[in-house]
Amino acid sequence: xxxxxxxxxxxxxxxxxxxxxxxxxxxxxxxxxxxxxxxxxxxxxxxxxxxxxxxxxxxxxxxxxxxxxxxxxxxxxxxxxxxxxxxxxxxxxxxxxxxxxxxxxxxxxxxxxxxxxxxxxxxxxxxxxxxxxxxxxxxxxxxxxxxxxxxxxxxxxxxxxxxxxxxxxxxxxxxxxxxxxxxxxxxxxxxxxxxxxxxxxxxxxxxxxxxxxxxxxxxxxxxxxxxxxxxxxxxxxxxxxxxxxxxxxxxxxxxxxxxxxxxxxxxxxxxxxxxxxxxxxxxxxxxxxxxxxxxxxxxxxxxx
Length: 304
Known about the structure:
39% of the residues lie in helices and 19% in strands. It is an alpha/beta fold. It has 2 domains: 6-134 and 153-223, Spore Coat Polysaccharide Biosynthesis Protein SpsA, Chain A (Alpha-Beta Complex), CATH 3.90.550; 228-290. Helix 9 runs antiparallel to helix 10 (252-272) and helix 10 (252-272) packs antiparallel against helix 11. The protein is globular, with a radius of gyration of 19 Å.
């Protein structure tokens, strides 16, 4: 730990089936210090890695992803912090590649790798900051008709972009390397985001602080991703986070328009979604959250 170059922070919530495969080989690395923060799981997640050379932090309740990340990076002192999802796999060589890229330019505050799905297909992990027009485009499914148009979606779907390094507005927090000094300057992730948009918000603040978010395709991560049913249950949380992000970073009128666009997106997906009843129910909950009728269903504690 004293000579660690990177603190690898993994926030776990009921991740026993994935956690060991994520951290075992990293915990054996000479330059890495692995910190696993468990958000009050009930499945023995921490017990599954108790024999590994890592730091484990058991939180008393589920405070959300951002809070877990903050608890993790503050438990170390390495000059770089890698935020890594428990369902992602990265080799030590790729982590050090990200560090090397960051050290090539002191203006670089964060570096994102190339993310692949388990079958080798590209994960569209690079993003543009949200605009009302992009949210409305998603509401009317125009991002499917014009997938490469910059106005149609936050997600960058041009595969050629993923073959070259360079700056990006924001990138998925499934795997993101950040300078510790910058995290300290920004006081970490905003814990007001329970889940979703905390990575977007962090990248926005990195750019606002005068640093850059960059992408390096030479470093590769494999990401399993979450199940569709569990994501459906969190659509209300996503809606609340998108609205909070708009309130934080947009002017009042723009934030109000974004809230309306989020509500419209949920409504159109309730009406025409083909992903089953659980998905429609999730969009309905998101609609009620955006309308201020319901509160998000935060998984604050593990199920009994």
